[in-house]
Design goal:
This protein has about 350 residues and is α/β, with parallel strands linked by helices. About 35% of the residues lie in helices and about 15% in strands. The chain contains 13 helices and nine strands. Helix 1 (about 5-10) packs across helix 11 (about 280-290) and helix 7 packs parallel to helix 13. The longest helix has 15 residues, at about 45-60. It is globular, with a radius of gyration of 20 Å.
Length: about 350
């Protein structure tokens, strides 16, 4: 069976994988040779990481321990473990968030980078590499919101009619929601952060993975999410539709990075090479519906990036101002809660 065919075939089995998924920090590896181990921290949902990890294990014989979490939480943990890293690879998280922690990552340029071009796909000194390109979209519940009334641009989300009805996750924890916040602030200034935070009226989610399900079940009317997440939910029959912000969206990559001082550095390099390789990137595009970073694989999405209204996202600015912007957000969010605990 070919590479992409085999990856698709193991999807169901991978979701039942017990040896490679969902381990918690501090859990021990089985008694295997250190040369055959790898520890991966990931913020990806299981349907993305599990089949890739399963295939990597099958091809290499390397036993992978996966620790799941939010990108913000895992990056904070990586910072706290910097003197004695417990993991080898950070897999996931917007590259703007990875850039904030670039000193925690080792320089590595994969041979696969020869097929990767475009700004924002390779970090300074090759401290990280983009894994998939992720345009941001608005989603809305089609039973609650008419297409004519759906929010069309970032300023729409600050309107009173959406007060308390917007599904959005804490940008300190969610890489995609931090990218969304930084996108809108770069378009409209820092006052936008306060306007959106207050308009949530104390209803901020902890994880971005909750956004689409809670819009689909009517708990919220609208939300901000990744294009691929919306497409997957629609394919599964969710009562949602999506649109690209007419005033401009960003298409920031999530990334993969090797930790400085990784205990299993050679295996980490092999993992990075694998997830950036043609088989994994084809699987990503054809089965998961994400936009690949390799230029030698045809895009499968209905809309090309060139056809979207893309704003000029300043990755360096987003990385440099993350702490300041998140602090502002949290202050304004508390104000919007009206003193609620």
């Amino acid at each position: 069976m070919g590479g992409i065919g085999k990856l698709a075939a193991v999807l169901a089995a991978a979701l039942l994988c017990t040896g490679c998924a969902g381990e918690q920090p501090g859990s021990s590896l089985p008694r295997v040779d250190p040369a055959d181990q790898l520890v991966v921290y990931t913020s990806h949902p299981q349907e993305i990481y599990a089949p890739l990890v399963e295939e990597f294990e099958a091809r290499t014989g390397i036993w992978v321990q996966v620790v799941e979490g939010t990108s913000g939480g895992l990056l904070e943990q990586i910072g706290s473990e910097r003197q004695a890293p417990a993991a080898d690879v950070m897999f996931g998280g917007g590259v703007d968030s990875l850039e904030c922690h670039r000193d925690c990552f080792a320089s590595y340029r994969s041979p696969a980078c020869e097929a990767i071009d475009g700004e924002g796909l390779c970090g300074g000194e090759n401290r990280w590499t983009g894994f998939s390109v992720l345009p941001l979209v608005f989603v809305y519940n089609t039973r609650l919101v008419d297409e004519r009334d759906a929010p069309t641009g970032w300023n729409s989300l600050t309107e009173p009619k959406w007060t308390g009805r917007i599904a959005f996750a804490d940008p300190a924890l969610s890489g995609s929601c931090y990218t969304a916040l930084a996108t809108a602030v770069q378009l409209y200034g820092q006052e936008y952060a306060g306007a959106l935070a207050r308009n949530l009226e104390g209803r901020c989610l902890e994880e971005s993975g909750e956004i689409v399900p809670l819009v689909a079940d009517g708990s919220y009317s609208v939300g901000v999410t990744l294009e691929s997440t919306a497409l997957q939910a629609i394919g599964e029959g969710a009562d949602i539709a999506y649109l690209y912000p007419e005033d401009g969206t960003s298409a920031v990559a999530d990334g993969v990075a090797i930790l400085e001082g990784a205990p299993h550095r050679a295996n980490a390099e092999r993992f990075v090479d694998f997830v950036l390789g043609r088989d994994a990137q084809s699987f990503l595009c054809e089965t998961i519906g994400r936009r690949q970073v390799r230029s030698d694989i045809p895009a499968r999405q209905q809309y090309s990036l060139e056809s979207l209204t893309l704003m000029d996202y300043d990755l360096a600015w987003a990385a440099a101002h993350k702490e300041e912007l998140v602090d502002l957000w949290q202050q304004e969010y508390q104000a919007g809660k009206g003193g609620q605990p």
